[in-house]
Every structure is written in C-alpha cells, then in structure tokens.
Design goal:
alpha+beta, five-stranded antiparallel beta sheet, four-stranded antiparallel beta sheet, 2 helices, 18% helix
Length: 159
C-alpha cells in the first residue's frame, strides 16, 4: 500500500512540475524607447465657454507592455524651463483642452487681454502596477508654439 501511495505522490509531483511555465522577465531598455509626438496647436482668441481645442498626439513607445502616463505641459519659453502641468483630457489619439484652462495659464505668463506665446510639450513616463514612476523613463515630445489672446477673468492659482 505504501508503494502505491508513494507512486501516486511521485506521479502527481511529476505532473505538477511539467505544468509550470518558465518565468519571463520584461526588460525596459531606455535606448530603445520612442518619445511621444505632439501635433500642431491652433492658437486663437480665447473666450469664456469657447469650443474645446483638440490636438492630435502619438503615445510614447517604451518597448514593453505596461502602464504609461502622458501629461501635457505649457511654458512661456521654448526650453520649457518654467513648465506647468496643463489641465487636459487624453483620448486614444487626441488631447482636449478647454479655453478656460488655457486662459488661466496665458494670464499667468502674460498680460490679461493680450496675445501670449505659449509652448506645449508632452511628457510620458512608465508607471509600475502600484502607480509610481519608473526611474529614467521620462520622455518629452517635440515643443509646439501657439499664440493665444487671453480674456480678463478671475485667476485661480494652478497646481
């Protein structure tokens, strides 16, 4: 009886061992990543309640299938030295920005009621399953310039 029990346990062990799958590690190689691209942004005279501005973009390609986050930034200089995160809604291939959100930034960077040159860029990062950013995974898109004429409104501080 003992031999039969040991034979059954050995057979079960062999069956379990043959069903295991080899573990594959995914490796992120920064040199192989492709930065996101940002399409042209049409400047305009901003209006309270004006139609949303829609901008095309392509996502970054990090070479691994994992979470990634894209954020739109705006600056008053082309080198993006003073960039601020812009409030925007991301779709699969486009970004939607409303007039009020651009107006707030335009008034901070320029004089209310005047034309202001704004520079936009996308920043993409890889995220872990816990939501933290993967080190050395930040990639910035091309910088796009657009001129907006702000309207006078109460300014609330941006984040």
């Amino acid at each position: 009886m003992k031999k039969l029990l040991y034979s059954i346990l050995a057979l079960a062990g062999l069956t379990m061992a043959s069903c295991t799958q080899e573990h594959i590690d995914v490796q992120y190689i920064p040199e192989n990543a492709v930065a996101p691209t940002l399409g042209e942004i049409q400047g305009c005279a901003l209006e309270d309640g004006g139609a949303d501005i829609v901008v095309e973009y392509t996502k970054a390609d990090f070479g691994v299938a994992t979470n990634q986050v894209h954020n739109l930034y705006v600056s008053k200089s082309e080198d993006m030295a003073d960039m601020k995160k812009a409030k925007a809604t991301f779709g699969e291939n486009n970004i939607t920005i409303n007039h009020a959100d651009i107006n707030i930034v335009a008034m901070e960077f320029g004089t209310p009621g005047t034309e202001t040159d704004l520079y936009f860029a996308l920043v993409a990062n890889l995220n872990t399953d816990k939501g933290s950013i993967v080190a050395d995974s930040e990639f910035m898109s091309n910088v796009v310039k657009a001129t907006f004429k702000s309207y006078v409104a109460d300014v609330l501080p941006t984040e």
